[in-house]
Write a structure and sequence with these properties.
The structure is a homotetramer. Chain A is of the alpha/beta class. Chain A has helices spanning about 15-30, 45-55, 65-80, 95-110, 125-135, 145-150, 155-165, 240-255, 280-295, 295-315, 320-335, 365-370, 380-400; strands at about 5-10, 30-40, 60-65, 115, 140-145, 180, 185-190, 220-225, 230-235, 235, 260-265, 270-275, 340-345, 350-355. The first copy, chain A, folds into 3 domains: about 5-165, 3-Layer(aba) Sandwich (Rossmann fold), CATH 3.40.50.620; about 180-295 and about 335-355, Argininosuccinate synthetase, chain A, domain 2, CATH 3.90.1260; about 365-400, no CATH class. A 5-stranded parallel β-sheet of chain A has the order 3-2-1-4-5, sandwiched between helices. Chain A is elongated and about 85 Å long.
């Protein structure tokens, strides 16, 4: 068994991580530092302090990281129009690298030689936490209790609590789903969702009304972009976290952002998940719209071709890697001119772009027009363009190559 | 000037191509063969016969190509989850190669040495028509009147008709938009759309009701896939064209499939277009869902990484090219196991996947479960997996490389 | 400990795998089947029979797999011009999937429930053997003694032999290098090579003379290709293994094919290796040459863009995977017209292409000529081609975007 | 005909561009400014002044651009290990953007509204010159005489000289090849090379001895890299142009850098070219070697995957484009740690890497060693790594999917 002196634990204050705190002390005879972050999950983090104190923790970190989360992680990711497997907006994936970073920084501040987390051995989150931790502090020890202990059921955890005098709220009607939330999304896995044919129940969803229950009146929004990020809504300047909080609110109220998919985990299995990402759904649509008038065609296509790889890096836990940073440099470089305003309509689950404008627009009405363009574009040029593009095809056909 | 003996014209029966037919005869002193196809544009094609006869055309081809269009062009494209620039379902682009193919086949049958079309010198369609024609018959002559003549306004065309006794319907209330339709979509360009900030008017849309006007009751659909193509809806077997016709109907009735974008044309300019693609929007969503349980992860990711290139080939007019065929071979190969049923819900513009099942499913409930998996997956394996994936990052950090 | 009844061991007859055979019996109390293959490593395989018998092995497989190796593994890989990290011709990597396949087939024939190999826990080969085995027989057990036992030095292995009465040749002057050989290459790692600044000693190399010691006279060769594979040399038809044997001979005699690199292993570390690949070096150069006149430009470019991914799959051990097979399908499809003859010159380490010809050539002298082409190509077309390709750049510049 | 007031001509002082200078004045009745650059082509540029004066030119620019050429164009390109179609080092392609840039800058300085060049309508160079010019000055007029005039043979050009009193050296024994040279390479096209089966004659080559005629003694070189560029040779600091000049000298003396290929031109045809690139051949090999110990694996692989696209951009003339600049940003970012020394051996055409070292090396001898690593690497980790990487393959096999 590893020799550990002090371990920083990603601590939620819930049953699992409370048991872990105690179990770490008992098993490794080490000091435990708890770290609890507000990433916009929608629950108070301050109560975690009393719980940690009750467990006898001496060093307790409780932090509001919402602005950093959106500014340094969510926004950079949306600059790439990032979607995993065509659908998933990476709400869980993008929060992990920030937690890894703070765990390691706190380890450095407190002289801890290990970190620990409550992710299971089947999921992606263990990978994301640990790859980040190793990348930022290569000699750190990682303790993943779910891979080590035999407390593999809720009953055993509760028994452990009884045995060790750990106070936990015995919530009635505990959710049948495994959930994760932050300012970008809330996710649901497990329970009836383990059958991919079963439709999710309406009661499961927490952040959005169903399209059926959304208002009968559409909501129009104007989002102002600067260097690819939203800086104002309806003319009102906002910080990154405020932008996302606001978009979650209006998105959720209008039934926007529900998703039900089967995804491929990095650890090798398929998994069914449901997600609510109201603000993110709006941001993806709007960002594509502002790019559509401000980005050069080939830059846009290069971004599109590289996006799946970039999304995969984030999904798999490689935010803290030189290859992600290299791609990010290129993506950020492309956003210099991504400025302007997008006008959107939200209505019962739909997000529609209805207008876009920019001082940096590359849309040229004089050239694009169906009306007389007064010589801005010489239609005769098209013949040579087509002829030379066709040349290799013609040569091949002349040599007897057949298509179709 | 080229010497032309006989030219096959893609003929709609409308004002423009009627003028072209006459203009070709006059200008090139050649015979004109007309070719009119039903691709599902929603207008009768048979009336084109009388119009062509009135113009003195001797060889008149009128054909229903709807099944071939969907079976050999639309379906193969959807196997790749093809989307251009993140949004456009390529409704216009995918119809052009079929028209090129028939133009050339008819040229071969009738001994024509040229083909002609009514596409302008600013758009993508001229490129698509002509690349296809050159690839299939490298010595063919192409006449693109819009790039040659000076009849560059509706007034001049009408004057030409008067002068040359061409009968055309003088439609009242002619649409202010440039439109194109086939079984996959209807498109709108020009008019007020030339201002990308202007919202499209509700009256413009023809194939779908607005989400606001869609029924208050959701519609559930079950699509059956075989080798990546839909072969039955709600248990009812259907031909390809019938599938798409049906999905257009129910999609349009439920407000599905409207799109408003600015896209990058191959000829170098940005252009604003609005599209209605009810059936295609449903198919894209459903195809991703059936693939999500039947495709291997890395196969899916490879498809996602190559898709933008494949989409660009189709958009730019390279359907008839060896590189498109090479990609198609790979895509088709991947679809062997893409079999099963997807359950969808349509509601006021939303298409939601609510279930998917397949005898070829790779979703393994025993492994994915949050419950006890009885040893199907050894959580301890994750440690080694993470450690070795982290190794290069740890070595770099140990050598002093910094991230972030 | 796993319960094993019978294990198939990849057996070379050398010290390591002889110890393994015994150790498997002792440790797992299981039957051992040995499998020894001639892949062109240049050593007799038949003597392995007596050695296996001396160890008490009942089921002994000894096979000449050279033709299958070159036909089904080496040749398909060369169709893609496959090179890992710009230099490495994958000589070791490409042999592993064939061994995995035979191990599993023999396991199926003999009713074995496990396989075993002598690869260490630090290298790529363990990954390649095992990924292949799991992909072909998902329930198979794998025993990798080097990851389990404590016999981690030559001394301990020899002691084990003494203790267990295993007869091994105590070679004098054992090579200080870890070597691997098959018909495609011989590799050297370890020893002084562990210092990447140290030059390899001339005595290390076994398959080739140094360029300094090669003949003063150049050798000319004509290779005939059919569907991307060499089918004849200097007009003489040959089987795949004969082709490679011959090219190794003449390549090695002319100092061709030495390589000294630092490569990135899949398990996360950098490693220095030296390789001799005389025939492969010739084949890569020649295959590019025959493709240069027979492949369409865009097909060639698509192959080039996908090659690094394909190479990585093979290097990492994913030959037996659906994504490799999907890429292979595309690559093979592209080779239909890769027919013709390449003329090469070998001289003191250099392989130079001096001529190429094909009935399927797309090289069109009439168009390419600097002389009068009699109208085959209209130079005026270039203006439109350039103008439209420049359009997006001009619009951007007009809008004030700056380059450089 | 375009109205031109003043045109800047890329002027070599040779027959073709002397005729062009006169022809431009006569045809467009415009002023002509000549621009002659020393890019290392190996001919004096100063004599061009007298020739231009003899033609009556008033504004004459003669410049030594060698340092700028290597520093800002050649070196950045080599940071990407750039090779077009697996072989071509882009010697001609990379010089064009610098000429375009200076033509436009001179046009701006002299108030010229047009530029002109002597490239033909069949080649890539017209595209490269003009795309660059349009990108840098979107309203510029371009005159490409070879696409306009009928002086399409040497005889007609000489007759034009006689007629217009243009003094040209009537070189005896004019080369039968079309050649282009700069500090990176010299190229040969045309003549007997138009038959791709014909071997190039030994007399054609100008910059290098044949391997046969190279010294019998090998030459060792040590190249010092900083941020991916060579800054010193054998410990001697050098400027970029001096580095390349030196490497050309020693490379050429040792028979390094000849290439004979058929390449695919952007304008659609295949073309046979021979190239001598002594210094570039050395630089490519050495740069890969220094990267092999200093670059992260995934960064290196990402560079390899993007390289073909980057090479194609340069080959096709898109140096001055936002997508090339975006890729360059990423490439340059990756070079921060590409520092150290590479030791090379040149011998009769061979360039062999024999050592590499760096303070930024990621090669870790403790982990890579075949000897006891004292726990730096835990071999047991490999099992989990393999097991999880195999999981998707095992699930598929269990579900009955077959490979092979």
């Amino acid at each position: 068994m590893k020799e550990i002196k002090k371990v920083v634990l990603a601590y939620s204050g819930g049953l699992d991580t409370s048991v872990i705190a105690k179990w770490l002390e008992d098993t490794y005879e080490c000091e435990v530092v708890t770290f609890t972050a507000d990433l916009g999950q929608g629950e108070e983090v301050e109560p975690a302090r009393a719980k940690a104190e009750a467990l006898g923790i001496k060093e307790i970190y409780i932090e509001d990281l919402r602005e950093e989360f959106v500014r340094d992680f969510v926004f950079p990711m949306f600059r790439a129009n990032t979607v995993y497997e065509g659908e998933y907006l990476l709400g869980t994936s993008i929060a992990r690298p920030l937690i890894s970073k703070r765990l390691i920084e706190i380890a450095n501040e407190t002289g801890a030689d290990a970190i620990s987390h409550g992710a299971t051995g089947k999921g992606n989150d263990q990978v994301r936490f640990e790859l980040g931790a190793y990348a930022l502090k290569p000699g750190v020890q990682v303790i993943a209790p779910w891979r080590e202990w035999d407390l593999n059921s809720r009953e055993k955890l509760l028994a452990y609590c009884d045995e060790h005098d750990i106070q936990v709220e015995k919530k009635k009607g505990k959710s049948p789903y495994s959930m994760d939330a932050n300012l970008l999304h809330i996710s649901y896995e497990g329970g009836v969702l383990e059958d991919p044919w079963a439709e999710a129940e309406e009661e499961m969803w927490r952040w959005s009304v169903s399209p059926e229950n959304a208002p009968d009146e559409a909501l129009y929004l104007e989002l102002t972009y600067k260097n690819g990020d939203i800086v104002a809504i309806d003319g009102q300047e906002m910080t990154p976290a405020t932008v996302l909080t606001y978009l979650n609110k209006v998105g959720g109220e209008n039934g926007v952002g529900r998703l039900d998919i089967v995804e491929n985990r990095y650890v090798g299995m398929k998994s069914r998940g449901c997600y609510e990402t109201p603000g993110g759904t709006i941001m993806l649509k709007a960002h594509r719209a502002i790019e559509s008038i401000t980005l050069d065609r080939e830059v846009a296509h290069l971004k599109d071709e590289l996006m799946p790889k970039y999304a995969k890096l984030i999904y798999n836990g490689y935010w803290w890697s030189p290859e992600r940073e290299m791609l990010q440099k290129m993506i950020d470089e492309s956003q210099e001119c991504v400025n302007g305003v997008v006008r959107l309509k939200l209505y019962k689950g739909n997000v529609s772009v209805v207008g876009r404008q920019s001082d940096d627009s590359l849309f040229d009405e004089n050239i694009a027009t169906f009306e007389d363009d007064e010589g801005a574009y010489d239609q005769a040029d098209a013949e040579g363009f087509i002829k030379l593009n066709a040349l290799r095809l013609r040569i091949a056909a002349n040599k007897g190559r057949n298509l179709g």
